[in-house]
Design goal:
single chain; about 350 residues; alpha+beta; HIT family, subunit A; 3-stranded mixed β-sheet; 6 helices; about 20% strand; binds 5,6-dihydrouridine-5'-monophosphate; binds zinc ion
Length: about 350
């Protein structure tokens, strides 16, 4: 029998960060594609849009007016999914019914006053202001006694459910540690107890050694396609030094994070020469007042696009019923992104 090859044969890969598996079917990349491939027209947006609820000076839902902000701006979400002032309570009925009240709150953050920009088109010095705001918010929200988890995230592109092209993200703080970070918490804790080092500290060393899945790095951060990626061009940004949360980053490290965030998203935009949609978010230690040496700060990027600006990967069927599946391997995806020009296509 021939030898097993990652590039030829179906296989399963393990995600040590959350314990999940992904099915990889590299031979399927050879199958013919007869679906539609279309390139959308380059979208031209004005620097200021009077109808945008995030632009400076404009009115939002509920009558709040945005200030004439000059760099970043944060406000309480007018349609928050979590509320601070709700009564404590729970419901149980036998073993099968369980519910409990959940306190928290939601904020929206504008990355720039410019309606027409996105992270890959912003200056690193301005992205750094976003990083600083994340840091302030993590500290402030996390210090509330009823907040044990702070989730910073960004939906980009309408196919990711983003409601507005104005560059923005969200922050939700809440009492419970939600499902995804809770899985990572458990896995990182077990690893740390066994090795006295964080899981991602060891992982980053290995990835930098092989370089196969590395997209870009600077002195303090690396962007890579994780070995266990599920979305076609899924990526992670990981700090080289083991820090459990954003407040522990040095000044240089915060700038390095902004730099890698830009470089990764420029690659993304250049892949199909379109503003590349994704959901991204930062995972870091719970804010429960405990030390969390097992936690290693990182960002996940989950982009849905597969073959072109319009052909997206759906996590349906087998993915819903069994586990995630991909065709193009993590290594092939990394190679494709690395081969792209490093300047944004719009500046050509
Ligand atoms: P998304 O584009 O990622 O969905 O985030 C936009 C958020 O902005 C969304 O959660 C809020 C929505 O509730 N929002 C306001 O807080 N005020 C508004 O005037 C419109 C939208
Ligand atoms: Zn706007």
């Amino acid at each position: 029998m021939e030898q097993f090859e990652f590039t030829e044969h179906s296989h399963r890969r393990y995600n040590p960060l959350n314990g999940d598996w992904v099915l990889v079917s590299p031979h399927r990349t050879k199958r013919p594609w007869q679906g539609k491939v279309e390139k959308p027209a380059i979208e031209e947006r004005p620097q200021y849009d009077e109808k945008c609820y995030l632009c400076p000076g404009n009115e939002r839902a509920g009558g709040h007016k945005n200030p004439d902000y000059k760099d970043v701006f944060v406000f309480q979400n007018d349609f928050s999914a979590l509320m601070p002032d709700i009564p404590e309570g729970n419901y149980t009925k036998g073993e099968l019914y369980k519910a409990e009240s959940e306190r928290g709150f939601c904020k929206v953050i504008c990355f720039s006053p410019r309606h027409d920009l996105t992270i890959p088109e912003m200056e690193v010095s301005n992205i750094r202001k976003v990083v600083d705001l994340w840091c302030d918010e993590y500290k402030e929200i996390g210090s509330l006694d009823y907040i044990n988890h702070v989730q910073i995230f960004e939906n980009k592109g309408d196919i990711m459910g983003c409601s507005n092209p104005h560059p923005h993200g969200q922050i939700w703080g809440q009492y419970s540690v939600p499902v995804e970070p809770a899985k990572e918490s458990k896995m990182q804790k077990a690893y740390f107890e066994k090795h006295g080092k964080t899981l991602l500290e060891d992982y980053v060393v290995e990835e930098l050694k092989s370089g196969e899945r590395v997209l870009v790095e600077n002195e303090h951060f690396v962007a890579l396609i994780p070995f266990w990626a599920t979305w076609p061009f899924e990526a992670m940004i990981v700090s080289k030094r083991a820090v459990s949360n954003i407040t522990q980053l040095s000044d240089d490290e915060k700038t390095a994070l902004a730099d890698v965030y830009k470089k990764l998203t420029v690659m993304y935009d250049n892949l199909f020469e379109v503003s590349f949609p994704y959901s991204a978010g930062m995972h870091q230690a719970p804010t429960d007042g405990e030390e969390h040496p097992e936690w290693h700060l990182h960002m996940h990027f989950y982009p849905p696009l597969l073959r072109s600006a319009t052909v997206k990967k759906f996590m349906v069927g087998y993915e819903m019923m069994a586990n995630a599946q991909r065709d193009i391997t993590a290594e092939q995806a990394a190679q494709r992104l690395r081969d792209l020009p490093t300047t944004h296509y719009k500046t050509k």
